[in-house]
Design a protein that fits this description.
Blueprint: H1 2-8, H2 17-83, H3 86-94, H4 98-112, E1 117-122, E2 126-132, E3 135-137, E4 141-142, H5 148-163, E5 164-167, E6 170-173, E7 186-192, E8 195-203, E9 220-226, H6 229-239, E10 242-247, E11 254-257, E12 263-270, H7 275-288, H8 293-319, H9 333-345, E13 352-360, H10 362-369, H11 371-389, E14 393-397, E15 402-407, H12 413-427, E16 431-432, E17 438-439, E18 442-450, H13 457-473, E19 479-481, H14 487-496
Parallel strand pairs: 18-19
Antiparallel strand pairs: 1-2, 1-9, 2-3, 2-4, 5-6, 7-8, 8-9, 10-12, 11-12, 13-15, 13-18, 14-15, 16-17
Helix pairs in contact: 2-7, 2-8, 7-8, 10-11, 11-12
């Protein structure tokens, strides 16, 4: 009776409220959940794409600033050898000798380092010399207040006084390694003769303490590089930005200012924005896995992380693109090893040869004439090696007086012998130092060919080194082929390969 009464409370053809509304509520809840998931993913996608774009833009700007900073540091390291030198103090600061400035100082800046513009600014902002490449103007004049050259010179004077030391007879400057040259050099941009230029400046100071600076401000050396099409293309060789350009207005992405903080121009390029790529992941996720919002978010997070890692890796690689040895201008160890490894990978289609070289009697030059003379000898030898090898291969400097050559134009013994003899003859020619002294060095060579002396970079290089050792043991000043090594040495070489 009770069951019948309860049942009679509901009209025929209907059910209890809970049973009637559950399917609709589940569908409604599912619809709401799917909608919220879709909106959440769309919101996350929008935020993530904007964040990825912001990170990419920031890293592009930072990377560009690092490249410009590297260019400043390179100019300063080039200057260091001439600016920190007793000889320069004697012939510029203590007594201004025009012949030295023209024939040695400016000539070295242009021919050895490629500094297109150079200036000497004396105390009180007096311009003593200006040069375009190797054309020198010795007309002296006072720089006007507000002149960009004077501003960068004044900053270099301040850097010098901050690092000045007292030595016998006057003043010097505390030495800094080339890696810390920014401590004594002034970096900036300047408008010179109507062009915007990247400039570095540093004081001319003693190195060995044989001479001393007088009281007062030092003479400042300024080097400048025009920001022209060649410069932009050279910088973009590292960056690979789309449509990179420089203009005199300040509307670009990265503005450059002079020492006084005035905008003198800007760099502009088409920004790389990875945010659009993120939508190719988000939209399919909304359509296919909107119920798996957490999973989709994790995938998106991983994607953003990979973008960031890729950008960081690109920045790190570009920082390591200083492939040239600062002293000699030849390939450094990193670049040479890369080239050797690439040659080894192509060995099946392009056999090659490696020549290891070591200077003879170089230590005597350093001991007798000083390290500056040794550096001068290294530069001369590097130029002679480059001229001797030409287009036949790559010349590198991997140590103090150690050179290596990757010969990829030929590998037969006859032509390698001719090349080696040409190198020995060229290097052994007398070298006249800036001081007027004449020195001579020799070179011993070890030659290994691939694949006969190894199928990968390490054993080939090791075999060339052993041949070099045999060359020096046999009397120096000659070339020794790895294939002529004694049998036990050859066996060890084959085992290493």
């Amino acid at each position: 009776m009770a069951e019948r009464d309860a049942a009679s409370q509901w009209p025929a053809g209907t059910g209890a409220p809970g049973r009637f509304g559950l399917p609709a509520m589940v569908r409604l809840f599912a619809a709401v959940l799917i909608s919220l998931s879709a909106l959440s993913l769309l919101f996350v996608g929008d935020v993530a794409s904007r964040k990825a774009d912001d990170i990419a833009i920031e890293k592009q700007l930072v990377l560009f600033e690092n490249v410009l900073r590297d260019r400043h540091n390179l100019l300063a390291r080039d200057q260091l050898g001439l600016a920190r030198w007793d000889h320069s103090v004697e012939n510029i600061t203590l007594k201004f000798r025009a012949s030295y400035v023209v024939e040695e100082f400016v000539s070295s800046l242009w021919y050895d380092f490629g500094h297109e513009r150079s200036f000497l600014v004396g105390p009180g902002g007096r311009l003593l010399m200006s040069a375009w490449q190797d054309e020198v103007d010795l007309t002296a004049r006072d720089l006007e207040p507000g002149d960009d050259l004077k501003a960068v010179a004044d900053l270099a004077v301040a850097r010098h006084h901050a690092n000045r030391t007292t030595i016998e007879g006057g003043y010097g400057q505390k030495p800094v390694p080339a890696a810390d040259v920014h401590q004594i050099a002034a970096f900036g941009f300047a408008e010179i003769d109507g062009e915007v230029m990247l400039t570095t400046a540093m004081a001319i100071v003693p190195d060995d303490g044989e001479v001393a600076l007088p009281k007062g401000d030092p003479v400042i050396l300024i080097s400048a590089r025009p920001i022209d099409t060649e410069f932009v293309n050279e910088v973009n060789g590292q960056l690979e930005y789309s449509d990179l350009s420089f203009s005199r207005n300040g509307n670009g992405l990265l503005t450059v200012e002079n020492i006084e903080g005035e905008v003198v121009g800007s760099f502009d390029w088409t920004l790389y924005k990875p945010g659009a790529e993120i939508w190719t992941v988000v939209v399919p996720a909304v359509v296919l896995v909107c119920g798996l919002m957490l999973v989709a978010s994790l995938v998106l997070g991983r994607y953003i992380s990979r973008l960031s890692i890729r950008l960081e890796d690109s920045e790190r690689r570009n920082r390591e693109l200083a492939h040239r040895d600062a002293l000699s201008g030849l390939a450094n160890r990193l670049f040479f090893d890369m080239a050797l490894n690439e040659a080894a990978e192509r060995l099946a289609h392009a056999p090659f040869a490696v020549i290891a070289g070591d200077l003879d009697r170089f230590k005597a030059v350093n001991d007798i004439h000083g390290h500056a003379a040794g550096d001068e000898v290294i530069r001369v030898v590097a130029a002679r090696l480059q001229a001797a090898v030409g287009d036949s291969g790559l010349v590198g400097r991997v140590g103090g007086d150690e050179f290596v050559i990757l010969v990829n134009a030929f590998r037969d013994r006859h032509r390698l012998s001719l090349l080696a003899q040409h190198i020995i003859t060229s290097v052994t020619q007398p070298i006249t130092l800036a001081s007027g002294a004449v020195v001579d060095v020799g070179i011993s060579l070890g030659i290994a060919t691939a694949p006969e002396n190894g199928a990968s970079a390490r054993p080939i290089m090791a075999t060339a080194d052993r041949a070099l050792y045999a060359s020096k043991e046999g009397g120096r000043g000659r070339a020794f082929f790895a294939e002529d090594l004694p049998s036990e040495t050859q066996a060890a070489k084959d085992e290493a390969a």
